[in-house]
Write a structure and sequence with these properties.
EPS_sugar_tfrase, five-stranded parallel β-sheet, Bact_transf, elongated, single chain, two-stranded antiparallel ribbon, transferase, Exopolysaccharide biosynthesis polyprenyl glycosylphosphotransferase, about 325 residues, transmembrane helix
Length: about 325
């Protein structure tokens, strides 16, 4: 990705009655999402910050090129446009009139990347609650709850033999309880006890809370298998029926880690605007990891899920989860 910045010029000569006519315009958003170059307009003091964030993208970005004359079939994104001058905002309006595809930078990147670039978020992104159907539409919430209940009951019946075998295997391999209960933070920052099949030694946290890591030596042999196949999550059916969790949503985290992560990740607690899930977009889109950088990436998918939630997206996540279970691609 190449980042180009241009000096801002005065645009007093740009009038609404400009004689220029659009030569062509995008016929679909898909065309806009495949452009090799996009143009971004933002306050001057944010240019370097945007350049640092987007340097790994596979497409080029030109920042604040107000000399651009051919605007048809250009992708033009704006960031913190309220801080732009009247003339600069007029340029963006004119771009729309002349056939450019114009929209907020974060929204465009959402569609193109499949996740939300959380480092570009500011408070205004979250203040338009009606844009988040999962938060504002009662019908969506009721439908999701109904699906959770029906899916949980069905899963409980189908998975009962697997659960019984798992309980026996855990008991045979290592001393300690079959189930593991742990305080997690859920919707509206309320804590609840998540229930799982125990996959670690019973003394796994005798010296305090620790991040789980890949090839964690605290994990038992049975635990390693049930974690990879997500069988350890089956008891969370109880959490779903209790209303603490949903089938699909951001994974619930422990408060001790949340306090650490919210110092590093912008708006980390916004994930608690919805119920946590047994599976989620982050779990099926990003490989296992236990660092702050991994948490940032998972947060990108969680915010995207909350903003773009739909029943169809839930179905796609569940289908990907089935693939994970069948082929042991879990953590």
């Amino acid at each position: 990705m190449n980042l180009v910045t241009r000096e801002i010029v005065e645009l007093d000569d740009v009038e609404v009655s400009s004689p220029f006519k659009p030569i062509r315009s995008f016929k679909s958003k898909q065309q806009a999402l495949t452009q090799s170059t996009i143009y971004v307009y933002c306050p001057t003091e944010r240019e370097l910050e945007i350049g640092t964030i987007v340097e790994d993208y596979s497409f080029d970005i030109v920042v604040n090129d107000y000399d651009l004359e051919e605007l048809s079939c250009k992708v033009i994104c704006h960031f913190e446009s309220a801080k732009l001058s009247k003339e600069q905002r007029k340029f963006l309006v004119k771009a729309t009139e002349l056939g450019a595809w114009v929209e907020p930078l974060v929204s465009y990147l959402d569609e193109r990347l499949g996740y939300t670039e959380v480092r570009l978020l500011h408070s205004g992104y979250f203040l338009h609650q009606k844009a988040f159907s999962i938060l504002s539409t009662r019908r969506t919430q009721l439908a999701k709850r109904l699906i959770d209940i029906l899916a949980s009951i069905t899963l409980a019946i189908v998975a009962l033999p697997v659960g019984l075998i798992t309980m026996l295997a855990i008991k045979i391999e290592s001393p300690g309880p079959v189930f593991y209960r742990q305080r997690r933070t859920g919707q509206y920052n309320r804590e609840f006890e998540v229930i799982k099949f125990r996959s670690m030694r019973s003394d796994a946290e005798k010296s305090g809370a620790k991040w789980a890591v890949k090839n964690d030596e605290r994990v038992t042999r049975v635990g390693n298998f049930i974690r990879k196949t997500r069988i350890d999550e089956l008891p969370q059916i109880i959490n779903i029926l209790n209303g603490d969790m949903s089938i699909v949503g951001p994974r619930p985290e422990r408060e001790v880690f949340i306090a650490e992560l919210e110092r590093e990740i912008p708006y980390y607690r916004f994930r608690h605007a919805v119920k946590p899930g047994v599976t989620g977009l982050a779990q099926v889109s990003y490989p296992y990891g236990a660092s702050v950088e991994d948490a940032i990436w998972k947060h990108k998918y969680d915010i995207y899920y909350i903003k773009h939630h739909s029943s169809w997206l839930d179905v796609k996540i569940l289908l990907k989860t089935v693939k994970v279970v069948l082929f042991g691609m879990g953590r």
